[in-house]
Amino acid sequence: MEFLAILTLIFLIIGASLYLLVCVDPNSPGLLGIMNRFVFNTIPTIIKKILGERIFTIFQRAVDYFFYSNHPLVQIFYVLVAVGGYLVYLYFGFLELFGDNPFVSHLDTSIGSTMALFCFYSFFQACRYKPGIITKENNKEYVNEFKEYYDNVVYLKENQCKTCNIIKPARSKHCRVCNVCVSRFDHHCVWIRQCVGQKNYKYFVKFIITHAILCDYGAYLGFRCIWGIIVKEKLLEAQFRDPVTKQRLQATWGIIVKYLFYKNTMYIFIVILCIVMGIALTCFALYHLYMIGQNTTTNERMKRSDFLNFFDEETERLEKQLKDAQTPEDIKQVTSKLEQVKQCQNRIIPAQSIGIWKGLKRVFNEPDELDQTIKIKNKKKQ
């Protein structure tokens, strides 16, 4: 049982980590970009050399389907993990340990269960509401809404999406998985089986925050419950018998942890899962709150960073050429290129710090795609 619990925990952590890496742009700078390239480029190359072309092709198709196609497997996985995890916590924690514990009670059971229901409902909302799909009918509306963001560097005016055959509004992107253009595109989320964009960003944020709070609360209750068991059973003062030597040993933290894990394996396992997922989801929620306060998106941050890095490298290259230039004509030519690069760099619209509270109000006041569709149709009738 202990081995199975540990193996399941490792599997869940690896699975969640892989799906987080899928959301990262492989060309983005930093550790996450390097990890994405290693997992999805370097490792497949090694596997191809080991397995051969034919077997690798089958493996590659399975990977492409699992990570880059719009399938319901991850949603099913979420239901199994989230609902199954709650039921395990309910049975092995709330019902078995919370009734006669000095530090937790069934009031915590009610609070935790209510929070779990909110989480499941937030998942339903995040899956249900569309991200703001740009079509030929609403194309002009989105173009006009974000026209001040055209800087002719990151976002070009009259730039056409060749797949959707529409003018691309600023801050939008064509998603290759969903095969649609999405307004104020943030990223494609495999957990909700669609993109996160202008119209459903509030539901995605609610989904992340509620799950982070639930996991953190589950970890907090776990610590209180375990400490209650230690106090109630007086484990710090107890003596334990070694199963091999039959020798009596005074309690140490190592012995107590082994005893608790042996006696409450499933509950300890689910608490550890709450800790791991709580840390990951809290960091993810804080990241998105920061992005909301900066009035920007994940896609914009990465694109802006890529352009700025390119211009910095180009500036450095041209400055070296300028030092090595011999003739006045070469100096004039390099100086002209350097000015053009700096002009382009200065045209990039930076992130706007509007504050988290104002950003949240803007995000949550955004109408749903259904409401926006009705609004557009009414305008056309007028």
Automatic annotation (TrEMBL):
Belongs to the DHHC palmitoyltransferase family. The DHHC domain is required for palmitoyltransferase activity. Its main location: membrane. Residues 158-304 form the Palmitoyltransferase DHHC domain. It is found in: Membrane. The keyword Amino-acid biosynthesis does not apply. It catalyses: L-cysteinyl-[protein] + hexadecanoyl-CoA = S-hexadecanoyl-L-cysteinyl-[protein] + CoA. The lineage of its organism: Eukaryota, Sar, Alveolata, Ciliophora, Intramacronucleata. It comes from Paramecium primaurelia. Keywords: Acyltransferase, Membrane, Transferase, Transmembrane, Transmembrane helix. The chain crosses the membrane at residues 72-92, 104-124, 267-290. It is a multi-pass membrane protein. The keyword Transmembrane applies. One of its GO terms (molecular function) is protein-cysteine S-palmitoyltransferase activity. This is Palmitoyltransferase. GO terms for cellular component: membrane. Its EC number is 2.3.1.225. PROSITE patterns: DHHC. Pfam families: DHHC (PF01529). It comes from the Eukaryota.
